[in-house]
Amino acid sequence: MFFRTKDLQYNARPERPDPIFAKQLQEVLGGQWGEISVMMSYLFQGWNCRGPAKYRDMILDIGTEEMAHVEMLATMIARLLETSPVEVQEEAAQSSSVVGSVLGGGDTQEAILAGMNPQHVIVTGGGAAPTDSQGYPWNSRYTIASGNLLADFRYNVTAESQGRLQVCRLYQMTDDPGVRDMLSFLIARDTMHQNQWLAAIEELEKDGLEETPVPSNFPQEREFSQVAYKYMNFSEGTESEQGRWASGPSVDGKGEFEYVADPRPLGERVEELAQVDPRLYGTPKRPMPPESS
Q1: Residue 61 assigned to a binding site
Q2: DSSP state of 218
Q3: Annotated binding-site residue? 120
Q4: In angstroms, rounded to a whole number, what is the distance separating the alpha carbons of residues 4 and 70?
Q5: Both ends of the chain: CA-CA distance in Å?
Q6: Do 139 and 193 belong to one domain?
Q7: Where does a domain end: 177, 206, 235?
Q8: Which InterPro entries match (predicted)?
Q9: CA atoms of 104 and 90, how far apart (whole Å)
Q10: Could you give the C-alpha distances from 199 to 30, 152, 202, in angstroms and in order?
Q11: What are the residues facing 220 on neighbouring strands?
Q12: Are residues 178 and 229 in the same domain?
């Protein structure tokens, strides 16, 4: 059960409108690595969690926080789109080095409008949308909730890393102190969340619930064990042989890494496939006989 308060988790007020940056900010709202994606992933991971209660509680804590981040970004985008006559758009464009380079120094109405997301005017009426910076709609396929906590937590580290990377890039693309203030908060929370998921991975392994390789309860004797710990060099050069992954004990402690400089095929040679059902109208293996009259 969720209750909303009127207080944002942190400030989301720009110093001035900037419809072009509003379009760019859409990426970390509705993009593949945006806040909607992590919000939905964490909530479904928590709702589906069958592990110890501490994991379910932790996952839903962070999932609920991500709702707050979605609201902050949506609020910021809406405020960046407030009162955007041509004069304000020109001021916003001239204040951004990124926009200036895109526009080639021009500040005409047409060029500025071209840098905006037209859906912010036509579809949302000056509000945020569940889309990325190119207008592509957020997709539930971005939601990751597999039921295996170690697999999910590793994905979560990746999601927080990609999200923090994109927010840091956006921070450099604006000089608006209000926008930077909010972004600095999100960057800091992503720092915590990366550390949080790494700590949760350690906890899972310490509790003996999961370990590498995932899933750890699949019997490894059913693997084709001859290749389980071989590093295969499938590119020109042998620089990869110098890595930790090429020799020595495996990370899971269950094998020994072996470097294979010139891997050879282990499968059968395929010369041709069998004929497909003729009702599928593929190209036959031989000329079709003439139809009888």
Answers
A1: yes
A2: S
A3: no
A4: 13
A5: 74
A6: yes
A7: 206
A8: Ferritin-like, Ferritin-like_SF, Mn_catalase, Mn_catalase_dom
A9: 13
A10: 27, 13, 5
A11: none
A12: no
The dihedral of CA 87, 88, 89, 93: what is its sign? positive
Domain that holds residue 233: 220-260
Helix ranges restricted to H, the chain? 19-25, 27-30, 35-47, 53-80, 86-94, 97-103, 109-115, 119-122, 149-172, 177-206
Residues 158 and 255 in one domain: no
Indicate if 39 and 118 belong to the same structural domain: yes
Residue 283 falls within a domain, yes or no?
A: no
The reply to whether 135 and 226 lie within a common domain is no
d(CA 56, CA 182): 28
Q: Is 272 annotated as a binding residue?
A: no
132 is in an annotated binding site: no
Give me the amino acid identity at 200.
Answer: A
Q: CA nearest 160: which of 33, 11, 10?
A: 33
Is 193 labelled as part of a ligand binding site?
yes
Token code pair at residue 206: 């310490």
Rounded Cα distance between 123 and 128, Å, is 10
Residues 202 and 227 in one domain: no
Q: What is the pTM of this model?
A: 0.86
233 is in an annotated binding site: yes
CATH code for the domain of 141: 1.20.1260.10
Q: Is 57 annotated as a binding residue?
A: yes
Number of independent structural domains in the chain = 2
Residues of the chain with pLDDT under 50: 85, 97-106, 108
Same domain membership, residue 94 and residue 224:
no
- Order of all β-strands in the sheet with 248-249: 230-232, 256-260, 248-249
Domain assignment present for residue 51? The answer is yes
Same domain, 90 and 151: yes
AA identity, residue 69: H
Please return the burial class of 198, using the count of CB atoms within 10 Å of its CB with bins 0-12, 13-18 and 19+: middle
Residue 84: per-residue pLDDT: 58
